[in-house]
Design goal:
Distance between the termini: 34 Å
CATH architecture of the largest domain: 3-Layer(aba) Sandwich
CATH superfamily of the largest domain: HUPs
Number of helices: 13
CATH class of the largest domain: Alpha Beta
Order of helices and strands: EHEHHEHHHHEHEHHHHH
Strand order of the largest sheet: 1-2-3
Number of strands: 5
CATH topology of the largest domain: Rossmann fold
Helix content: 40-55%
Bound molecules: adenosine monophosphate, tryptophan
Oligomer: single chain
Number of domains: 2
Largest sheet: 3 strands, parallel
């Protein structure tokens, strides 16, 4: 039987070129190897305040973007987290097997609760819901960014604990962190990750940005005064970041790129990078606009995804109820 891979993104703002290169492209590779599940983590988004109209819009937009980027609906189960009531029920049962101390030690919780003293209890229990997403689908592998690693490790701990206390019920998930060439940095401050939440958006490329703006952002990316196109992330973070982007989108190796641009100046190189990024985004945006207006197509995919998601998690739910001794 094929191993299962599962991941989710939150529907908070348009995803970045960093998300595309670091996360979505990886899932596109996995869809040919594993049984793949990809979802929109809308319940995670409401751990902080959300405008309801914006939220709805962002959920649909992210689904359309997944598909436009190349997540194949025939090879993936694509779904919206909140459409499956079993996950939140499972989350509660897992919560009762998770310690307050474990949750209050999570780095993301500590950071976010510091920023806003009036945080909800959902911010604290967020990683348990994430564990429920993973455990309820019996996922073997969970590819995430480094910031989510601790949460997947907690999901492992919870699964192991539950298996010991009741019976071997859950698959213990493994985290996948891809480390090479995938961390895309901010174009203006290339020592910082390109992130949806960066205050200055001049260094952030979002997949639905106007293509002229995208070109400008790349042309005005921070570089250095050496004028050599060489990969050296420590001393030349700006140029190395552009090489990473170019390499990921063209599948050319870093060495080949250095050779290709040995006689080039930064202006020429940036133009080439901009061409490739604009070309990639232009294709994605074209497909995105077609898909977004095709409600019937999207509904078909999401209904199928929801049904499969519910079918798998209901089985786990029923077993858990039995093991714990709930109900009749
Ligand atoms: P985030 O948007 O930070 O919640 O991240 C969602 C997913 O996208 C994670 O799996 C990250 O690894 C990936 N990701 C986000 N930003 C970047 C980036 N700048 N470079 C590479 N991967 C990223
Ligand atoms: N918390 C993740 C993020 O913010 C999204 C997420 C929710 C997720 N549930 C998950 C990722 C389960 C992987 C597996 O990026």
């Amino acid at each position: 039987m094929k191993k299962r891979v599962l991941t989710g993104l939150q529907p908070t703002g348009v995803i970045t070129l960093g998300n595309y290169i670091g996360s979505i492209k990886q899932m596109i590779e996995y869809q040919n190897i594993y049984e793949s599940f990809i979802f929109v983590a809308d319940l995670h988004a409401i751990t902080v305040n959300q405008d309801s109209i914006e939220l709805r819009k962002n959920i649909k937009s992210l689904i359309a973007l997944y598909i436009a980027c190349g997540i194949d609906p025939e090879k993936n189960t694509i779904y919206i987290q909140s459409e499956n009531p079993y996950v939140t029920a499972i989350s509660w049962m897992l919560e009762c097997n998770t310690y307050y101390g474990e949750l209050s030690r999570m780095t993301q919780f500590k950071d976010k609760s510091k920023k806003n003293a009036n945080f909800t209890s959902g911010l604290l229990t967020y990683p348990v819901l994430m564990a429920a997403d993973i455990i309820s689908m019996n996922a073997d592998y969970v590819p995430v960014g480094i910031d989510q690693k601790q949460h997947v490790e907690l999901a492992r701990d919870i699964a192991i604990r539950f298996n010991k206390k009741y019976k071997e019920l859950f698959i213990v998930p493994e985290v996948i962190i891809k480390t090479t060439g995938t961390k895309i940095t901010d174009l203006q401050t290339p020592d910082k990750k390109m992130s949806k939440s960066n205050e200055n958006q001049k260094g952030v490329i979002r997949l639905l940005d106007d293509l002229n703006v995208v070109r400008k952002k790349i042309m005005s990316a921070t570089t250095d005064s050496e004028m050599k196109i060489i990969y050296d992330p420590v001393n030349k973070p700006g140029i190395s970041n552009l090489i990473n982007i170019y390499s990921s989108l063209t599948n050319k190796s870093i060495e080949d790129i250095e050779k290709e641009f040995i006689d080039s100046n930064y202006g020429n190189f940036k133009t080439k990078v901009a061409d490739v990024v604009v070309d990639t985004l232009s294709n994605i945006q074209k497909r995105y606009n077609e898909i977004l207006n095709d409600d019937e197509y999207l509904d078909r995919i999401l209904d199928k995804g929801r049904d499969k998601n519910i079918e798998i998690s209901k089985k786990i739910y029923d077993k858990m109820i039995d093991c714990i001794g709930l109900g009749r």
